[in-house]
Amino acid sequence: MAKKTGEKFEAILDAAVKVIAQNGYHNSQVTKIAREARVADGTIYLYFENKDDILVSLFHTRMDEFATKVKQKIDLVDTPEEKLYQLIYMHFKIFALDHNLAIVTQIEIRQSNRRIRNDIGKSLKKYHRLIEELVEFGVQKGKFHDGIDVRLMRQMIFGILDETVSSWVMKDMKYDLLELVDPIYFLIANGIERKS
Amino acid sequence: MAKKTGEKFEAILDAAVKVIAQNGYHNSQVTKIAREARVADGTIYLYFENKDDILVSLFHTRMDEFATKVKQKIDLVDTPEEKLYQLIYMHFKIFALDHNLAIVTQIEIRQSNRRIRNDIGKSLKKYHRLIEELVEFGVQKGKFHDGIDVRLMRQMIFGILDETVSSWVMKDMKYDLLELVDPIYFLIANGIERKS
Amino acid sequence: MAKKTGEKFEAILDAAVKVIAQNGYHNSQVTKIAREARVADGTIYLYFENKDDILVSLFHTRMDEFATKVKQKIDLVDTPEEKLYQLIYMHFKIFALDHNLAIVTQIEIRQSNRRIRNDIGKSLKKYHRLIEELVEFGVQKGKFHDGIDVRLMRQMIFGILDETVSSWVMKDMKYDLLELVDPIYFLIANGIERKS
Amino acid sequence: MAKKTGEKFEAILDAAVKVIAQNGYHNSQVTKIAREARVADGTIYLYFENKDDILVSLFHTRMDEFATKVKQKIDLVDTPEEKLYQLIYMHFKIFALDHNLAIVTQIEIRQSNRRIRNDIGKSLKKYHRLIEELVEFGVQKGKFHDGIDVRLMRQMIFGILDETVSSWVMKDMKYDLLELVDPIYFLIANGIERKS
DNA sequence: TATGAATGAGGATTCATTCAT
DNA sequence: CATGAATGAATCCTCATTCAT
């Protein structure tokens, strides 16, 4: 039914990011998004099943692009260490360049209901998998610890990056996120304990 | 105005955790919470300013208890490493013992609006500070890396723990969270890179 | 936002008069008005800001029409005395022909809150002004006493007419209001004192 | 059941006038009146049947006092003209001395429901009767027009006085009400028409 | 008499979705 | 394909009144 392509499809998604970033999730009515996208309310329903579908599609397309961009970058370097570094760099870089996206994905969209959050979880699969492949590569190359669950390592890496970005957004993006690339890389790589 | 103590105050908070865990945030009407607490709807408003206030109070009291319990435990051991280990252990332990609390704090309450989320952020201050003190102690004892921002270390540690618990809840708490204490401790302590 | 014209706008106002006259101000729920107007509850809010706005708009349109009708009539005669007589006649006539309007404007709408009553006051401005012009005309023609504040004369005339109609409504409109036109005219014109 | 006398009965009535004058009818909760009267909420119900009963009793006692004061004054003079003058003077004087009473009786209490307004009407009976007696006296003495309905004359006099006071209250009592005694007397006595 | 904590019925308003044009 | 007027279900909160103490 819902035609999930086309100029207006994109326009609606763009409008949704903008409206949600500006007004907050709970104050972003379909009418507001339609007005921002310069279409009629009813038109939304030619491209999306319902309001939730806008959010899920939004998150899905954006996270897909996100993972693609990160992958392109880490494919350009060879060692696990360099790939990890580029992952962190790109993760922060993308959000630093698109504040609205940061606000929406880190804060607002998490206010959605259980079902949406589940679907959103799926959208992260690709990115999670990317990190896991990086970890596997590092372990295989003998550069990362083996014997530790790969999923756990991925969770740790993702948890650190996600929390760091969320904190930055909550602090109104007042500081330069990219300055954290080096120290975060160091912590992920070396942990917090000092070796004598 | 709102009397934030007493038997019914506690009963309402307990009911709120239960109802929200079972029905989800957006399907937890005041009437439902009142019925579960065995009080009249209006009674809720003798103890809370409004519905949001229930959530904020809920998160605040629970997180305060949380931080207190963790602190009691880490005070019993001496070295930074042991304290870190106990922190992780207690963080997981508390949620492992109270699934409803885990669901509500990790998933449901995050669906609340911006203002609530802000107040909720404040409730975490005490716990954040606790972790920072632990980090400062470790640095001072020469056991943790110095030269790295303490807040950043705290963010990393909290981010890992939070993401781990969230993941576990999203996976319907099907596995034993406590089995992750050791490997997570290892990762936080040593990072992911293998030293030759 | 609220589109204050159109078929449904009128239908809602008509319904409001009927419902309020029948049920009393405090027992006239939006749902009741909507049902009487044969529209959905939500439709009300496409035409009115809120419930109060229905009342204010109701009073405003009706009083505007009221003043217009009265003006048309007194414009047809020439002397101040005839104009005054026609004013009294029309004031009573309009209410005598529309009992619901009388009930609503004289009794029910006065139960609304302070803000509404203020707005309602403004709606009477046009009618008040009409009476004042009549008085000024009479003074200028040398037919009415000069040296007395025009506003005061208007207040007196309006006060008499208003009280007379209110009394009639309170007595359940059991007698013929139009029979009072002559004696009221006489009293306003001559006062109560008998000149020897 | 309700004991309609005693120190607290009076205290509650006094509190009601004050609270309603300050907060408006619709924002004068029983709790607020109780607090102002320094009694418990429940105590109110030992002296009054229900909230409406407070208002009715309030209006009744105050209007009874009102009529008594006016009567005392007009009894001191002999001619109908002097009595009429004193009536106007006292009517304005009492409200000029008690602004809260003016606000409550002219504006706020009229927002109450149909039943209360009916009871309130009864409280005015005594005052209405007083005016009618004055009119009858004037007619009998040959000073006022005969042949005109006494009730109508009373209605006219009361309507003028009431409208004048209401207007004054609506204008925030910014001018001196007593300055209107003379011109209003003149208008009531002589009407608006100038005799050649 | 007096208290005040507890009750619970009642209603304005929002907003995702539909469907006639 | 596109429109936007119309729909109506769903819910938080207030406050007059009660009654155990």
TrEMBL record, chains A, B, C, D:
Pfam families membership: TetR_C_4, TetR_N
InterPro entries: Homeodomain-like_sf (IPR009057), HTH-type_TetR-like_transc_reg (IPR050109), HTH_TetR (IPR001647), Tet_transcr_reg_TetR-rel_C_sf (IPR036271), Tscrpt_reg_YsiA_C (IPR013570)
Keyword DNA-binding belongs to the record: yes
DNA-binding in keyword set: yes
HTH tetR-type domain sequence ranges: 6-66
PROSITE patterns: HTH_TETR_2
UniProt keyword list: DNA-binding
Start-end of DNA-binding region: 29-48
Domain of life of the organism encoding this protein: Bacteria
GO MF terms held by the record: DNA-binding transcription factor activity; transcription cis-regulatory region binding
UniProt-recorded name of the protein: TetR family transcriptional regulator
Organism of origin: Vulcanibacillus modesticaldus
Organism taxonomic ancestry: Bacteria, Bacillati, Bacillota, Bacilli, Bacillales
